[in-house]
Design goal:
153 residues; mainly alpha
């Protein structure tokens, strides 16, 4: 069964065994480098997803604050609340730019519409026109509440 082994010289046997060992080491090393590259890509993707989640949380914070300050301004007529709302709207711009690679739909447009409707709503309530303010707030698809709900989804 191993008669071919007796025909090999010791030198040739050591050379063949060394080549087999080196080939095995090369194959295993190649696989380990491949697996390491896959792992690094997975970790990179996980870090990016984590960063995007944090950015989305910041965006959500600013949109909620925007809604809150516009609602407060509607009730109190405080111009400082409007300034705070605009500050939160400005804070969303770099976040939306950072998240531009994600499919956020029409979020930017909805937020701009929300600010416009919110300012009109504040003006209506401040002028004493409760009916117009209520209409701007409760309008089914274009009202402040509807836009806020669409943004939060």
């Amino acid at each position: 069964m191993f008669s071919w082994l007796s025909q090999l010289s010791t030198r040739r046997f050591i050379l063949c065994a060394s080549l087999v060992i080196l080939a095995t080491i090369a194959i295993i090393s190649g696989y380990r480098f491949y697996a390491l590259a896959q792992l690094q890509r997975a970790v990179g993707t996980e870090i990016q997803l984590h960063d995007d989640a944090i950015t989305l949380q910041e965006l959500r914070y600013h949109t909620v604050q925007l809604q809150q300050f516009l609602t407060d301004a509607s009730l109190t007529g405080d111009s400082g609340a409007i300034a705070e709302a605009k500050a939160h709207q400005l804070a969303t711009a770099p976040l939306l730019q950072t998240l531009s690679k994600l499919e956020l739909g029409s979020l930017t447009t909805l937020m701009a519409q929300q600010v416009t409707v919110g300012e009109k709503m504040v003006a209506a309530y401040s002028s004493g026109d409760k009916t117009a303010g209520d209409r701007l707030m409760k309008s089914p698809q274009t009202g402040f509440d509807a836009l806020s709900s669409a943004i939060n989804e």
